[in-house]
Write a structure and sequence with these properties.
5-stranded parallel sheet, alpha/beta, elongated
């Protein structure tokens, strides 16, 4: 058997768990905290592959192995790698308390509604986008993806709780700082986990499903679900197809450019994405913020006209929705296409704008497609009868970034 023991924030490994072990594997601080059995080999975890190879030698000789890990080793821990290599039947897992559970306990917050994201050995942008979208997030940090980097990328209304050396009675620290304060400090290597909180919404409601937020039961909501001016809103039929092509999800960043009422922005946020809405009209900015509050989501609003306003957006989006029109539309689409990682969706009422918008997408290397949407809605008439009322036709174009092969040729 391979006995996997969670230490650190939980109880330390007792001598009964180590008795008879021929090989003990773990981080240096875990190994230094225990007394090894006589004759046992000690392997300090660094690169994982050599340690797994050594474990395999002992397993092949049917010699007992103990692996020491932090907290709950089945939660973003070494249990996954061991199960993939040796199978679950060989594992005897003795979990401790995870760093996430401990950090939330230290500040007195429940965490069944928290989203947990790992930035250890992964791209930081996913963790940043989750923190921008959700009110309560735990981030497992790593080199180059710690509190300073996280704070530098987050809006100023977020509070970070930096928990370091959890479980160490002498070195443990739990500090509550602003994003700017986190960005300005050197946190060292002892950080266990960072909690990112929108404090106004951090307590949250009672949940029946833990972790990742429940998907909304409906999307492409009716126009009257949003405050808007003079019917200047993306109609729900158009919004439904736009959302399908944008594919907003947790960890994504979406721009809504020329956002108007922000209906597309709010719907993307309801589906889990971090969202930036760009709107040039001051009254439109107010409506977007009001609609986001009404639907309980976070939308960052930028007051400015595209394409100039896009230059101030630091992070490249996964997907972009461009609404409205005007003479600047080709330049706006081109600017969005230069930045979008995955897709750009453009809604237009004017036929004359379609060729230039399509050219802007194809010239940026996107595979382009589109439809003309014409719908008629059931509308009641006096006398208990119904007629079909036509909505204005809308062109919807979408461009999908074409993957590039290692030889630099579009596939």
């Amino acid at each position: 058997m391979i006995t996997v023991v969670g230490t650190g924030t939980g109880a330390p490994a007792g001598p009964d768990l180590l008795a008879g072990a021929a090989l003990v594997v773990g981080g240096r601080r875990h190994l230094d905290a225990v007394r090894l059995p006589d004759g046992a080999e000690r392997v300090v975890l660094g690169p994982l592959a050599p340690a797994l190879d050594t474990i395999a030698e002992y397993v092949g000789k049917e010699l007992p192995v103990v692996v020491l890990a932090s907290g709950d080793p089945g939660f973003f821990g070494i249990v996954r790698a061991l199960a993939e290599r040796f199978g679950t039947g060989l594992l005897d897992v003795r979990p401790g308390v995870s760093s996430v559970a401990t950090a939330f306990a230290r500040i007195g917050l429940p965490w069944d509604d928290a989203v947990v994201v790992s930035a250890h050995g992964r791209e930081l942008r996913t963790a940043v986008n989750v923190c921008r979208a959700r009110p309560k997030v735990a981030v497992l940090t790593g080199p180059g993806a710690g509190p300073a980097e996280l704070g530098a990328a987050l809006p100023g209304d977020r509070v970070l709780v930096v928990a370091s050396a959890l479980g160490d009675p002498e070195r443990e620290r739990v500090e509550r700082v602003t994003a700017a304060e986190a960005a300005a400090r050197d946190w060292g290597a002892a950080v266990s986990v960072v909690l990112c909180l929108d404090e106004a919404r951090a307590l949250g409601a009672v949940r029946t499903v833990a972790g990742v937020p429940e998907a909304p039961e409906r999307w492409a909501l009716e126009e009257d679900a949003f405050a808007h001016r003079d019917s200047m809103i993306t109609k729900f039929e158009v919004r439904a197809l736009a959302l399908a092509r944008l594919g907003p999800r947790l960890g994504d960043l979406v721009w809504d450019v020329g956002a108007g009422s922000g209906s597309v922005a709010v719907e993307c946020a309801r589906l889990g994405a971090a969202v930036v809405a760009v709107e040039k009209a001051a009254d439109g900015v107010g409506r977007i913020r009001a609609n986001a509050r009404a639907h309980g989501v976070a939308v960052e609003v930028v007051h400015g006209a595209a394409p100039a306003a896009l230059a101030g957006l630091a992070d490249d989006p996964d997907a972009v929705f461009v609404g409205g029109g005007g003479r600047e539309l080709p330049a706006v689409v081109a600017a969005c296409a230069r930045r979008a990682r995955r897709t750009v969706v453009v809604a237009m009422a004017a036929l004359d704008r379609v060729p230039a918008a399509r050219a802007a997408l194809t010239e940026a290397g996107f595979a382009c497609d589109g439809v003309l949407l014409q719908s008629s809605r059931l509308t009641p008439l006096p006398g208990d009868v119904t007629r079909l009322a036509a909505t204005n036709p809308v062109f919807l174009l979408w461009g999908v970034r074409t993957p590039v092969s290692s030889e630099g040729v579009a596939q």
